[in-house]
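Checklist before submission:
- one chain only
- standard amino acids only
- sequence pasted in full

Submission:
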Amino acid sequence: MSMILTVDPCSPDPASLDRAAETLQQGGILAYPTETLYGLGVDPFREDALDRLFRLKGRPTGTPVSVLVRDMEMLQDLVEDVPPRARLVLERFLPGPLTAVLFARGRLPSRLTGGTGKIGVRISPHPVLSYLFERFPHPLTTTSANRTGMAPAVNAGQVRDAFPEGIDCILDAGPAPGGTGSTVADLTGRDPLILREGALSRQELFGFLQGT
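Returned file contents:
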């Protein structure tokens, strides 16, 4: 049975954040809120934690997993280079519902890149995550809290119902807005390639670039 920790989004209980960080440090699976949906996080540098996450979701082997980072400094630790136009996009839309796909540094686990040589990176503006990064100052995976092919969870109850077993800790900060998840855009080329359109529309992204 998952441990559910109810937290105030603007002033979460320090003990709950400590427990959430402990979960990640020990190779456990944490469910957490974002500005769109609830996500599942593990330490992306622990193979055992990644294995647990893949089994829990029923995620096919070879599928890349995106990561959540605190800020641009942490993002740049994971990628080889940020092209000038990609940097403009990141500065405009992060934090926010954009997962930017960039060339990965060679030291990253192949489970994250899916053998593509690229990594999806995202910064969420949800206040609970800002507090969590104070306790766990490292990247964590960001994948929707659902079994592969099922509807994503938008509150802690749906996370628990989807995963009666397997999740170690759920940070319950109330319902997420729902709708679609982040937009996934490959920024390694001259122009973005939309791999999945989500909360950030194609029109908004390309409209911004046309004005630069």
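Reviewer check: The mean pLDDT is 95.
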